[in-house]
């Protein structure tokens, strides 16, 4: 089965460091989503792309977070500088568009010390 | 805008008993509804989806859900719980409030515990 691949699976770093998370969507999928999951806030949508174009990043703190799709096989989420409150599991998902299910990767577990 | 409410953040059932996880939605247009399951240290996996073709939807692992427009509900059921069903379950609705918007609105999740 085709899968969404996320790297790294785990990341521990110190406050102030840059963090880059990567996602390889399922081949042929034209939408990509970034989510953050925490115990307190649950699952939050940070940003999403259609055909590599960013459509909505209203859920993302603009001053420190950025999301890009350099090409159709790679999506990145960067945090600079990182803060302890950014500790969470970050999920990438891809899909085939309107009313279609999203397929999730296994996430990046991020800990900011 | 659409919204989803999952009643009960924790549900416990005995092995072999009926599983019932509740989901109610609000939508001004016919919704597309989904159930996802999340096992520990994994991403969300699609269990089933409702796309208006049939009100009773069968999914993987013996789960099914029934769309009831009059009750604005999409509850998830399984006749006989198995230990491997222990996980967190999320209900989601397509956000059709803006044309071409592919976002899903997720519920807050229900953690299912199976008692041996």
Keywords:
heterodimer, A: 113 residues, mainly beta, seven-stranded mixed beta sheet, four-stranded antiparallel beta sheet, B: 116 residues, six-stranded mixed beta sheet
Given the helix and strand composition of chain B, which structural class is it? Answer: mainly beta
| Oligomerization category of the chains in this entry | heterodimer
H/E element sequence of chain A: EEEEEEEEEEE
Question: Main beta sheet of chain A: strand number and arrangement?
Answer: 7 strands, mixed
Average of per-residue pLDDT values of chain A: 94
Strand content of chain B: over 45%
Which regions of chain A contain 5 or more consecutive residues with pLDDT less than 50?
none
What's the main sheet of chain B like? 6 strands, mixed
SSE class of chain A: mainly beta
Fold topology:
The complex is a heterodimer of chains A (113) and B (116).
Chain A (H helix, E strand, L loop, with lengths): L4 E3 L2 E4 L5 E6 L6 E8 L3 E9 L2 E4 L8 E7 L2 E6 L8 E8 L6 E3 L3 E5 L1
Parallel strand pairs in A: 2-11
Antiparallel strand pairs in A: 1-3, 3-8, 4-5, 4-9, 5-6, 7-8, 9-10, 9-11
Chain B lengths: L2 E3 L4 E5 L4 E3 L2 E3 L6 E6 L5 E7 L5 E3 L5 E5 L4 E6 L8 E8 L9 E3 L3 E6 L1
Parallel strand pairs in B: 2-12
Antiparallel strand pairs in B: 1-4, 3-9, 5-6, 5-10, 7-8, 8-9, 10-11, 10-12
């Amino acid at each position: 089965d085709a899968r969404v691949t996320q790297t790294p699976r785990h990341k521990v770093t110190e406050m102030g460091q840059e963090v880059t998370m990567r996602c390889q969507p399922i081949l042929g999928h034209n939408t990509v989503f970034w989510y953050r999951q925490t115990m307190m806030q649950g699952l939050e949508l940070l940003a999403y792309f259609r055909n590599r174009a960013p459509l909505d990043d209203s859920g993302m703190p603009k001053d420190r977070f950025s999301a890009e799709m350099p090409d159709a096989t790679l999506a990145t989420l960067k945090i600079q500088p990182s803060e302890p409150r950014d500790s969470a599991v970050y999920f990438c998902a891809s899909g085939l568009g309107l009313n279609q299910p999203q397929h999730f990767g296994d996430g990046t577990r991020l800990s900011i010390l | 805008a659409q919204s989803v409410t999952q009643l009960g953040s924790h549900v416990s059932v005995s092995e072999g008993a009926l599983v019932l996880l509740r989901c109610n939605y609000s939508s001004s247009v016919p919704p597309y509804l989904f159930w996802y399951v999340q096992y520990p240290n994994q991403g969300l996996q699609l269990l089933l989806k409702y796309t208006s073709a049939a009100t009773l939807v069968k999914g993987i692992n013996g789960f099914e859900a029934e769309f009831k427009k009059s009750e604005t509900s999409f509850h998830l059921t399984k006749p006989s719980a198995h230990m491997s069903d222990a996980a967190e379950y999320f209900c989601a609705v397509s956000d059709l409030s803006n044309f071409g918007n592919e976002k899903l609105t997720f519920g807050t999740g229900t953690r299912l515990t199976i008692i041996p």
